[in-house]
Amino acid sequence: MKILVTGGTGYIGSHTCVELIGSGHEVVILDNLYNSSENVIDRIETITGVRPAFYRTDILDKEGLEKVFQENDFEAVIHFAGYKAVGESVAIPLTYYENNISGSINLYQMMKKYGVRNLVFSSSATVYGDDFEVPFKEEYGLGTTTNPYGTSKKMNEMIITDMDNADPERSSVLLRYFNPIGAHSSGLIGEIPNGIPNNLLPYVAQVASGQREYLRVFGNDYDTPDGTGVRDYVHVVDLARAHVKAIEYAAEHTGTEVINIGTGKGYSVMQILKAYEKACGKELPYKVVDRRPGDIAVCYADTKKAEELLGFKAEYDIDRMCEDSYRFYANLENIDK
Ligand code: NAD
Ligand code: UFG
Asked: Strand 230-231 vs strand 267-268: parallel, antiparallel, or unpaired?
């Protein structure tokens, strides 16, 4: 299939392009490089032996977007492009809604105009909010989001479902990611942190590399086995493989499917820290501080639907996730960012 990948030079997008190419698909990447670099195209080529076509285009630029659709005959779109920092979205909500909602609507309008009916969208476990019991099941529906980023994901899910209802030939898979971590085993692509990392893994990696003195563990008084927050960490390469299965599923079906992508297992902050210590071969200092506002205690996926519908099951465990993450961060100084 010829597939448009928006946000394809980003963290999850770049890994997905590698897996799509490996499965014989033709990839066209669209990205405005707000949070990534064109050098990622070279690295995808190094890993796969194939250089994907690249457009430096903003999804807010309707004319630029139309040019991409005029010049290509796409069968499907995988839509990653967007902003993703939860805290920032609270501070600048309109910027988030403009990019994540208006930008997405521009893309969906172009898909409609050019008759492209198959879509995979990057949603998030954050749409469950704190309303339901773990493991989170797709049938729960949408919970109460607590920040504009989460709300933008929820609104996208609703918009896409409405479009699918209006056009019975359309087909969408809404993937609700849990916590993607890790990197490609080549050490060439991964998540390049921008400023002080908000997420656990990039922060731990910077403690391991000596850039940060210690990890702040946000609370050890949660109702969890060791008191620290529990999440469902999924290797980004597993997540990328799920996208290949999802877009192939979308091409063969119609309607809307919401599918969780995680491992179904929860690990605490302390368990991740210990796994990372094993991967990097040293002790990592930490201090327990107050809970981070908005955090929930436990979040992990029910993964049955991904298995049944897509035949997808995550393969990599947290040791492998931490090893691959450490390899990438240790290699960062050799990489032309
Ligand atoms: P990322 O920032 O690495 O990738 C997003 C890419 O989109 C970047 O390359 C950025 O330059 C591009 N982009 C942003 N705005 C754009 C615009 N207006 N036009 C064109 N390109 C634009 O993020 P990621 O971690 O790879 O996440 C990909 C998607 O998955 C996002 O939609 C994100 O919200 C979603 N998601 C991520 C996580 C996570 O933990 N990483 C969890 C759940 C959902
Ligand atoms: N944590 C720390 N110290 C840190 C960073 C995180 O103790 O420096 C803890 C958090 O309190 C939480 C766990 O590590 O218990 C994971 O935190 P992350 O920030 O890595 O991930 P979240 O689960 O909070 O959020 C992520 C994405 C969101 C997405 C959500 C959906 O960042 O975009 O998963 O599950 F919405």
From this structure: antiparallel
Q: What is the pLDDT of residue 337?
A: 66
Distance from Cα 298 to the centre of ligand 2, integer Å:
11
In this structure, the residues whose C-beta lies within 6 A of any atom of ligand 2 are: 84, 86, 124-126, 178-179, 198-200, 203, 215-218, 229, 231, 269, 292, 295, 299
Distance CA 99, CA 31 (A): 13
Question: Mind giving me the DSSP string for 181-246?
Answer: E---TTSS------SS--SHHHHHHHHHTTSSS-EEEE-S-SSSTTSS-EE-EEEHHHHHHHHHHH
Query: Cβ of 2: how many Cβ atoms within 10 Å?
Result: 14
pLDDT along the chain (337 residues), means of 10: 98 99 98 97 98 98 98 99 96 98 98 98 96 96 95 98 98 98 98 90 96 97 98 98 98 98 98 98 98 94 98 98 97 80
* Global pTM value: 0.98
| Pocket perturbation via mutation, ligand 1, pick of 14, 30, 31 by most ligand atoms within 8 A of CB | 31
DSSP code for 130: T
